[in-house]
């Protein structure tokens, strides 16, 4: 299994519109972050997680012309806004994209992009993005079992992804007990840590680095990759402060499991 981080950024990307870098040093390319998206390649098939506004550029930059399955973790803009390009991509990329999402996310997508979906009865949308509503559990993908696990993110209930000893936990501020059990003892945990070393306020729907370190005292993943990084995070400065086994994600990062 090969994992590629297409986008490692928080909801606004870095730099955010207006060339605003926050605490991230503009001279380090690892601080240039597009909206969160992950590609998992299993037995030469591509499982894509989320399509934010940067979807089109990510596909072109990495020369990805085929997606075999797609997971929408949740319905926030930074994870779904590229959907109109997904429809075009499906058209030229060859056939149907099996798309997993919860009823909650499906409701948000069809509401937000009603112009795309209103015309489906006489047009192509559902043909190329084949929606499979799922609230968690196991699906088969390219000869492996992929597990989708619920987490809490404010008033939304995103799906995390697990395959063998790798898991990806998207935006969250709480992990239910039954999901925690399924995340124990991983080789690699890729996890949202939006707030960096800024302590997350009690009202935020994201977590900070301290909270992820504490979480991994229970989960005991061998390697933790911190992802969905906001402009509070400077790659070089902050990675140097992390304990052994923790690293920061960056756009284009690749690893095999
Ligand atoms: Zn997000
Ligand atoms: Zn979110």
What does this structure look like?
- 42% of the residues are buried.
- The termini are close together.
- This protein has helices at residues 55-61, 77-80, 83-93, 103-112, 114-118, 125-128, 177-182, 209-219, 235-239, and strands at residues 2-7, 37-42, 45-49, 69-71, 97-101, 129-133, 137-141, 144-150, 159-163, 166-169, 188-192, 223-227, 246-248, 254-256.
- The strands form two sheets. It has a seven-stranded mixed sheet with strand order 6-5-4-3-2-1-14. A seven-stranded mixed sheet has the order 7-8-9-10-11-12-13.
- It is of the alpha/beta class.
- The protein has nine helices and 14 strands.
- It has one domain (2-256): Metallo-beta-lactamase, Chain A (4-Layer Sandwich).
- It is 25% helix and 26% strand.
- A hairpin with a 2-residue loop joins β9 and β10 (166-169).
- The structure holds zinc ion (2 copies).
- One zinc ion binds at residues 74, 76, 153, 171.
